[in-house]
Amino acid sequence: MIERKKEMGRDRVSRLVSWGHWFAFFNGFLAMIIGVRYIETVGAPESWLGWGYLTISTLGHFSFLAFIVYLVVLFPISLILPYSKILRGLAAVAATFSLCILLYDTIIYDDYGLHLSPFVFDIAWADLNSLLQGTSYIVTPLGIIILELTAANFLWKRIEKIRKSNYGNKVVIFIGICFVSSHLIHIWADAADVTEITRLDDAYPLSYPATARSFMERHGIEKGEMDHNDTRTQPTLNYPISPLQCSANDKVNLLLVTVDGFRTDMVDEMTMPFLYQYARNNHQFSQHHSGGTIHESGLFSLLYGLQGSYIAASDLNYRSPVLTQELKQQGYALGLFAPKMESVVPNAIYQDLEDHTQSVNESIADADIRSIETFKTWQAEQAQPWFALINLQSPDSYDTPIGFLGIETVKPKQTLKPAQKVLFNQYRQSLNFIDKQLQQLLTQVPEETFVLITGVSGKVFTSDNNEARTNMSPMNVNVPLIINWPGPANAKKVNYPTSHYDIVPTLMTQLLNCNNKAKDYSSGQSLLQPNSNSWTYVGDNLVFGIYQEDEITVIDRHGKYRIYDKDYSKRLRKKISAPEFIQVMREGRRFYNH
Question: Would you say 246 and 443 are in contact if contact means Cβ atoms under 8 Å apart?
């Protein structure tokens, strides 16, 4: 009798476990249906390769999540309380709760571009009224729990028949193959930089696809060395939001001079005497922020006028900035004069510009000299209005030409380590070299030329590229901005905050006579009026800072954040401001197709 009871108990548990697996698979299928909402947000693939990866990734990922929920919640209960009625009820409640969380996550991801975490939940709670509208948030859970109870009872009544069919092992093998295959395909896509696949990395919650990055780093392989085809995916950006309406009558020449690693506080009488005086005689912006902390994000914010969160958008591998598109449309000759770069992000940022980049043979300083000389020759040959982008990179690598006689060393105003003091004075020498190059350049530019001089990003004294990228201090963000408008000299100093995002709207409205609102094509507004936003986004899609009047918030892609005082010298123990963060996240989603 005792043995009989034990056998019956084992059989009951076996049936419950088998039922639990099929119930988990059913809920994995429901999760896949909800997961379609993520694809609507990020944009569906266009090629068979993208659709193939998406299909097996979706099958593997959501089935795995459903099984994990079963393993953590239902499996222990089936052992402790092996009663089908209790287990079916608890399973229906747990499944409903899990699917409702998944639905809520799709709403948040569509609005903020982030998945649920304790940090994001706090922010979303403050914005609950705008996220959940109507009565769907009441009706949907009721509908789901009715469906779950029906499915739970249906599967339980037919569990013996299902077990005898022997489909279970086949389904498990199939799901396992999908799960493993999706990771193997992603390893290949990561190594070959197949954006059709890698752009989906963050689409699903709790998704951490395997990469080849560690292997490639150990073997000294760079992604740029891999051969791959540039395939255009389905557009995910609505950029510009509305067609441009521009009709410039008096076309002026435009010269943009951008300097890598160019700090505002270094434009003084001793280090850069020419530019110091040039700024005093023209339009000077004293509180100007770059949109990035490195070359790529800084120039992206300047030329596209978009937040760095858009820098990885696949569309921008073949869609150039609206500024250069319009200049080209209006018959301008466009040229790029800079040291040659190994890679360009995004691929189409200089697509409309004639390439006059210089090879870096001896030094970057020599390449900067050749860039300016090449520009002078090119400009003299132009019979039509022109736009030139000169990018000087010497200061970012502390470079000067051989034999350059610079200025005397000085004691830094801020406290620096001994090695940083050496870099500080070498940096000043490089800026003094740039000052002399600017003097030669600007004294020979035609009088009726619009001239804009600014920094791509600021500068911190470190050789660690990751530290330079993640450092959101004013030294790394605040850059000079000096504008010489065509016509009579107009000396003016602007003291309200401005940013790189405001440059494109200013050029489009003031020089190209565009009637569109700045929000149609930019995250900024005109430099000629104070910004209505109380914050500025600095960084890219991996790590960014939110600059506010009294604090700087640094956030990584997983939602972890740190808040500093306005000088970046002291960490503040406080929570992030929800209204500003919500505005930042929505601006980072505004240009995506929904």
Answer: no
Asked if residue 579 has a cis previous peptide bond (ω within 30° of 0), the answer is no
C-alpha–C-alpha distance, residues 299 and 503, integer Å:
11
How far apart are the C-alpha atoms of 298 and 292, rounded to whole Å? 4
Report pLDDT for 227. Answer: 43
Amino acid identity of residue 355, one-letter, is D
Nearest 10 degrees: Cα torsion 226, 230, 235, 240:
100
Pair of tokens at residue 380: 């003299």
What does pTM read for this prediction? Answer: 0.80
Residues in the chain: 594
Give the closest residue to 20 by CA, choosing from 101, 80, 76. 76
Q: Computed from CA positions of residues 139, 592, 532, 264, in that sequence, does the dihedral angle turn out positive or negative?
A: positive
Q: For strands 354-355 and 283-285, give the pairing.
A: unpaired
Q: Counting Cβ atoms within 10 Å, is residue 378 exposed (0-12), middle (13-18) or buried (19+)?
A: middle
Q: What is the 3-state secondary structure (H, E, C) of 396-427?
A: HHCCCCCCCCCCCCCCCCCCCCHHHHHHHHHH
Distance CA 178, CA 412 (A): 59
Euclidean distance between CA atoms 384 and 405, whole angstroms: 39
pLDDT in tens, 358-399: 999 879 999 999 999 999 999 999 999 999 999 999 999 999
SS3 assignment, position 292? coil
